[in-house]
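Hi support team,

I'm filing this because I wasn't sure whether my run with zinc ion finished correctly. The job status page said complete, but I'd like someone to confirm that the output block is well-formed before I use it downstream. Pasting the exact inputs I used:
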Amino acid sequence: MLGDFTYCNPTKLYFGEKALDNLEPELRKYGNNVAFVYGGGSIKKSGLYDQVMTILNKTGKKVAEISGVMANPTIDKLREGIEIARANNVDFILAVGGGSVLDYAKALAVSIHEEEDPWDKYFDRFEEPTCPIVPIGTILTMAGTGSEMNAGSVITNPEKKLKVGHVFASEEVMPRFSIMNPRLTMSLPTYQMVAGIYDIFNHICEQYFSGNDDCPSDDIAEGLMRNLIRASYKAVKNPKDYEARSNIMWDATWALNTLIAKGKTEDWMVHMLGQSLGALTNATHGMTLAAMSIPYYHFIMMDGLPKFVRFAENVWGVDPKGKNDIEIASLGLAKMEGWMKDIGLVTSIRELGADKSMLDDLVNGVSILNGGYRVLTKDEVRVLFMEAFKR
Ligand code: NZQ
Ligand code: ZN
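And here is everything the job wrote out:
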């Protein structure tokens, strides 16, 4: 490993069927005015809302509800939550839901005491918070984003046709604790479950496909990918398979709590392509990544050939005997695509709501990053979207 780094992850995790027992003692450590943030109603259906409310009441908290946080949360919804939080002197945020709710809570945490508009400061200029940050705790109901143990927050601005992620440098943005009971994820529709699985897989790819040195992060990444592939088949076959759901949830956390990026540069171009697609179509995050991955990885394969060969052999079990590197690498990508089809991912951007009239906006919405094997030009980004339209 050749890179230098600092690593600190202060989030305390409570994992397993009894994880919710830890909410009460955790809540007692924090302020009395709690913003209870949740999504469109899945937690009411599952009964989790009532369980959480009971615990909040037991600890004597004054609760302000911020509900209806949508998938791919918008800046307007954030502005609305900031008003509610200020009116209630919120000093702790409890986020209960998937990545969208958790990301929203982080954006809220850095905005309650900030006078400037959060879009300009955090999602346009990418500044760090200069105001006090309200602490947050989470109860995760969907495995995918890793938001439970990272400092990322992705917010959509429909007016500007942009979906932007900010990974805050401040450790204070990270959840103080996250409660993770795999059983809570079992009520997810299959579409969301497999989208989450691909999100996890692609987070690993974004950190794996870079660098050529011998780095332990890449070995950890391969183990996570193998486990995720195994668990995904089991979970698709039987969504109530606790072991599979538990593995997927834990894989998700380690896929994006920044550990496997240590000592390396990172790619993240599939996410840049997917986010642009998501900004224009509001499609499910993991599906946008699935649709852009195949064109992208074929496009950059020759730039990072040794890693694609390693990927084929170590993740997909491709037997190298009698094959040249290009054949091995191509077979690895073919196996990846086969798995994507097997678990039911959407790989057509048309199916996600895109049409060719969006092409200019799709290209404009992509930020070009330089940590992977190839620095794309905007013309190449256009080629990739054109390629995606053919599928
Ligand atoms: O709103 P509710 O009713 O809760 O329904 C949600 C939502 O419709 C539903 N859901 C969640 N848990 C459920 C459930 N339905 C039944 N049972 C449950 N247990 O699932 C739908 C999708 O939820 P969402 O939170 O949007 O999904 P996900 O966890 O994939 O989060 C996606 C967001 O996270 C961002 C994405 O861009 C997107 O905005 N990301 C955040 C990252 C980070 N913080 O590091 C990195 C990722 O790459 C990603 O960009
Ligand atoms: Zn993602």
